[in-house]
Design goal:
Layout lengths: L4 E11 L3 H7 L4 E12 L4 E5 L6 H8 L7 E6 L2 E2 L5 H10 E4 L13 H11 L6 H11 L16 H12 L6 E5 L7 H18 L2 E6 L2 H7 L2 E6 L2 E7 H6 L4 H8 L50 E4 L2 E3 L11 H11 L1
Parallel strand pairs: 3-8, 3-9, 6-7, 7-8
Antiparallel strand pairs: 1-2, 1-4, 4-5, 9-10, 10-12, 11-12
Helix pairs in contact: 4-5
């Protein structure tokens, strides 16, 4: 089966100063926020990008839809290159890709009613039909009554604003839905409702979903495959069950060890990783994670590791891959003693 979305060796840079200032002071004129990222998503699949804030997840998603330019690499949608298209040429592609933004209320214009917000995609893309009927259908899709069409964003709760944002993303029945932190800022019960709604819409509309999150419980609930990003690179990727059961990279293991589990007898001790994420202005050499990893080898500071495979489809970039899985053994032994 051909991939719906293919990302190959994509790099994204943001300017942080003028070239003149860089020449005079030696300060960088730009920083690289996404570094050589590659992955593909199959039709009907849910693919998750996870990592701490600043890992490049949102920048990559915005690069896919053309909201920020890519510096190198290629992005293809249904086999068509889309990474360097003009705004006019990209417009038909944007009908096929919907995006739920991270800030549910901030992404909605406070001056527009819900009706106007949901009707806007049809106007922009010159789609005909009864706009009121379209709006009513979209509200029904996300479980909101048609009376909400007259409300304004400040009259919506966080969960309701998220549903309106989801309805807007689905307006033109896209093939790919990009969901950036779809449960952020919501309480646990509402998070569950949103994830169940995503699953229901995917089954009913045949959606392919790229979900961006730092919440690993979300990944476990909805994702078929997961990629872990650190400082703009993918350090581990594979089927969700495989990555959760046998993490190979120390960073993946640290994220998993800090993830709450719904079992009082399975209390995990979060793995210690030293310090904070380095600044993008001063990337460590080699594997960027090595200053925070107590299992780092000499070569970790010299070169970024080549991708390796644990099983089919489960890849990682680590010179010392065993260090990722060691955290599981104490957990298993503690659970065995208590059972």
């Amino acid at each position: 089966m051909n991939a719906l979305l293919e990302v190959e060796d994509v790099r994204i840079r943001f300017p942080v100063g003028s070239r003149l200032n860089a020449a005079i002071t030696g300060a960088p004129a730009s920083i690289e926020v996404v570094v050589g990222v590659s992955f593909s998503i199959q039709p009907g699949e849910t693919y998750a990008l996870v990592g701490e804030s600043g890992s490049g997840k949102t920048s990559l998603a915005r690069g896919i839809v053309g909201l920020v330019p890519t510096h190198a690499g290629s992005i293809s949608f249904e086999g068509r290159p889309i990474s360097r298209l003009s705004e006019k040429a990209l417009l038909p592609i944007r009908r096929e890709i919907g995006m739920i933004f991270q800030d549910p209320t901030g992404s909605l214009s406070p001056r527009q009613s819900v009706r106007s917000i949901l009707a806007e995609p049809f106007r922009v893309h010159r789609q005909g039909g009864d706009l009121d009927a379209h709006v009513a259908r979209l509200l029904d899709d996300v479980g909101l009554p048609s009376s909400f069409a007259s409300r304004y964003p400040h009259q919506l709760s966080g969960g309701q604003a998220r549903r309106v944002g989801m309805a807007r993303a689905l307006a033109l029945r896209p093939k790919l839905l990009i969901a950036d932190e779809p449960t952020a800022g919501l309480d646990v019960s509402v998070q569950g409702e949103m994830l169940n709604l995503l699953n229901e819409l995917q089954a009913r509309l045949g959606l392919t979903i790229l979900i961006i999150t730092h919440n690993l419980n979300v990944v476990r609930h909805v994702a078929d495959r997961v990629a872990v990003m650190y400082l703009g690179r993918i350090v581990e990727e594979g089927p969700t069950a495989d990555v959760f059961a046998s993490p190979c990279h120390r960073y993946t293991a640290a994220l998993l060890s800090a993830n709450p589990v719904p079992n009082p007898d399975a209390r995990r001790v979060p793995l210690d990783i030293e310090g904070d994420m380095p600044s993008l202005f001063n990337r460590p050499p080699g594997c960027e994670f090595h200053p925070r990893c107590r299992f780092a080898l000499e070569q970790c500071a010299a070169m970024f590791p080549a991708p390796a495979s644990l099983t089919a489809g489960h890849q990682f970039a680590c010179h010392n891959p065993g260090c990722g899985r060691w955290y599981l053994e104490p957990l298993r032994s503690r659970c065995a003693r208590r059972s």
